[in-house]
Design a protein that fits this description.
There is one protein chain. It is built from four helices and eight strands; from the N terminus they run ββαβββββαααβ. It is of the alpha+beta class. It has one domain. Strands 1-2-6-7 form a four-stranded mixed beta sheet, with no helix packed on it. A four-stranded antiparallel beta sheet has the order 5-4-3-8, sandwiched between helices. The chain starts with 18 loop residues before the first strand and ends with a strand. The mean pLDDT is about 90.
Length: about 170
């Protein structure tokens, strides 16, 4: 298990493209948000108590998550369970439980972790997301087709439009 903390510089995070990366493994979900040299006011939007909203929609075989953090614009992150390296089980959640999400803000230039926040996602959202993931895992997967589908989505929709299409949200 890898342990991350604020202020830590992670080599693999250095010189990363700006954007959001979502993944799920057997211990929970993670959302890495990469900003080039984030400003103080941007970092503050990730603090506990600031608005956090997450939605998802399936388009062309891709789960598109959209995220609203504080007063920042909507962000998006494509996801398929076929690329998750440590997702071996999709357990049904106990009644009243949701997925744990680790939200991480990273300076994409230096690789420094600027903020960490643990968020409990609602049961309803988690169940709908797990159902979509389980359905996708049962289908065949082609990485080239997945990349084409993502390009098609990005050429057709903004993050805000994807968020409006979201069918499960917090």
């Amino acid at each position: 298990m890898i342990r991350y903390e604020v202020g830590q510089v992670v080599e693999q995070f250095k010189n990363h493209q700006e954007g959001s990366c979502f993944d799920i493994d057997d211990s929970g979900a993670g959302l890495k948000v990469y900003f080039n040299n984030p400003r103080k006011d941007e970092i503050e939007q990730f603090a506990a108590g600031k608005k956090f909203e997450i939605r998802f929609v399936e388009l062309y075989g891709v789960i598109m998550l959209t995220i609203k953090i504080g007063n920042l614009p909507w962000m998006d992150a494509p996801y398929t369970p076929h690329l998750s390296k440590n997702l071996t089980r999709l357990e049904v959640l106990d009644e009243g439980q949701g997925l744990a999400l680790t939200l991480m803000l990273i300076n994409a230039v230096t690789g420094e972790i600027k903020h960490l926040r643990l968020i409990g996602l609602p049961e309803r959202f988690s169940r709908k997301l797990f159902a979509a993931i389980k359905e996708q895992k049962e289908k065949s997967f082609d990485k080239a087709e997945y990349a084409m589908a993502i390009r098609r989505i990005y050429s057709s929709y903004s993050s805000g439009q994807l968020a409006k299409m979201g069918n499960a949200y917090r």
